[in-house]
Write a structure and sequence with these properties.
Blueprint: H1 3-19, H2 22-28, H3 32-38, H4 43-46, H5 54-79, H6 83-106, H7 118-131, E1 136-139, E2 142-147, H8 148-165, H9 172-193, H10 198-207
Antiparallel strand pairs: 1-2
Length: 209
C-alpha cells in the first residue's frame, strides 16, 4: 500500500469522526490562541486531519491522491531508499510551514480557526509540477490542457490576490505558502540527497517549452 493511500485513509477516518463529533473537531482544529496560550503546537499538524464538510474532504483527498502517487514514485526514483522518508517529510513539514504566516497574523485572534490539508496538498501538487513542469494540466473553464508550470504560475498569482483581498472563509495563505514550501523543500532535498540536479532539470525542461 502506498504512503499516499495510507495518508488518505487516515485523513478520511479522522475527518469522518470529527464531522460527527464536535469535541474531536475542537481538539484538532488549528486555533491560534490555543497554540499561543496553551502551547498546543500539535494543532499545526492535526488540523490537516479534519475538514469542514465531505466536499472539502473529497476535493482535498482527490487532488492529493491524483498527484501524490506520482510524486511518491518520483521521490523513490530521485532519492532511492530515502524517497519514502522524504515524501512524508515533504507532507508534514509543508503542513507546518504553510500555517506559520496564518499563526503570525492570528495568534491572539479568538475568533479565528482553520482546518484542512490544503496546504500540504498544495505542496505535493507543486512538487509534482516542479519535477514535471511540462506535464499537461487542466484548469476550470479552459478546455485545453496547459503545461504545469503555467498552471502553477496562474494558481500562485490568483491565490496571492485572493489572500490579499481576504474574506470568503478560505485560508488562501495556507494554499500559497504550502505551494511555495513544496517547491522549496524539493529544491533543498534535491541538493542534499538526489543523484541529479533537480533545479537544473526544471530549468532545462522549461527551456524546451
Amino acid at each position: 500500500m502506498s504512503i499516499t493511500l495510507i495518508i488518505v485513509i487516515i485523513t478520511c477516518i479522522v475527518s469522518f469522526l470529527a464531522l460527527n463529533n464536535q469535541k474531536i473537531l475542537d481538539d484538532l482544529i488549528f486555533y491560534p490562541p490555543a497554540v499561543t496560550n496553551q502551547k498546543q503546537w500539535y494543532r499545526f499538524l492535526t488540523c490537516a486531519l479534519v475538514h469542514a464538510d465531505y466536499v472539502h474532504l473529497g476535493f482535498n483527498m482527490f487532488s492529493f491522491y491524483s498527484f501524490g502517487n506520482y510524486v511518491e514514485d518520483a521521490f523513490k526514483y530521485y532519492f532511492g531508499t530515502l524517497g519514502p522518508v522524504l515524501y512524508v517529510a515533504l507532507y508534514v513539514i509543508s503542513q507546518v510551514l504553510c500555517l506559520l504566516p496564518t499563526y503570525a497574523k492570528h495568534k491572539d485572534d479568538y475568533y479565528y480557526r482553520s482546518l484542512g490539508a490544503s496546504g500540504a496538498v498544495s505542496a505535493v501538487i507543486f512538487a509534482g509540477i516542479f519535477l514535471s513542469p511540462l506535464l499537461p494540466m487542466g484548469i476550470m473553464f479552459i478546455p485545453i490542457p496547459i503545461p504545469g508550470f503555467i498552471f502553477g504560475f496562474l494558481y500562485l498569482a490568483l491565490t496571492a490576490y485572493l489572500d490579499r483581498r481576504g474574506g470568503g472563509g478560505i485560508n488562501h495563505s495556507a494554499h500559497l505558502f504550502g505551494a511555495l514550501a513544496g517547491i522549496g523543500l524539493v529544491i533543498v532535498f534535491g541538493f542534499a540527497f538526489a543523484h541529479e540536479n533537480l533545479l537544473q532539470n526544471f530549468i532545462q525542461q522549461i527551456r524546451r517549452f
